[in-house]
Design brief:
With 101 residues, this protein is mainly α. It contains 5 helices and no strands. The radius of gyration is 17 Å and the shape is globular. The termini are far apart. The mean pLDDT is 84.
Length: 101
């Protein structure tokens, strides 16, 4: 394999990684579209502005948070209830801290 082949493969791999990230981001933004506007305005900006800065573990936690039902999420974010899952609760708190000025 020549040096050009290696650099060509590296560019292709980088392009593939970038495409995977774009698809994942699009999928996340779609999952952030909820039945409640209050949740949309929390999640969509978070994905745009902060998701990439999360650790891999926190990214998975955020994705798991998106699988929860809207009434639960609403109660947690509005402070009516506390999520019993410590990782999810930490993510809720992290998102809430970002929006407080």
């Amino acid at each position: 394999m020549s040096g050009n082949d290696v650099s060509s493969n590296t560019v292709t791999n980088n392009e593939n990684s970038t495409n995977v990230l774009k698809v994942n981001k699009a999928r996340l933004k779609w999952a952030c579209r909820r039945g409640m506007l209050e949740l949309d305005v929390l999640f969509i900006p978070f994905v745009d502005e902060a998701y990439d800065d999360l650790s891999t573990k926190d990214q998975f936690t955020f994705e798991r948070l998106l699988t929860c039902q809207d009434p639960e999420l609403f109660a947690w974010f509005m402070g009516h209830e506390t999520c019993e899952d410590t990782e999810l609760n930490a993510m809720v708190q992290h998102i809430l801290k970002r929006i407080k000025v």
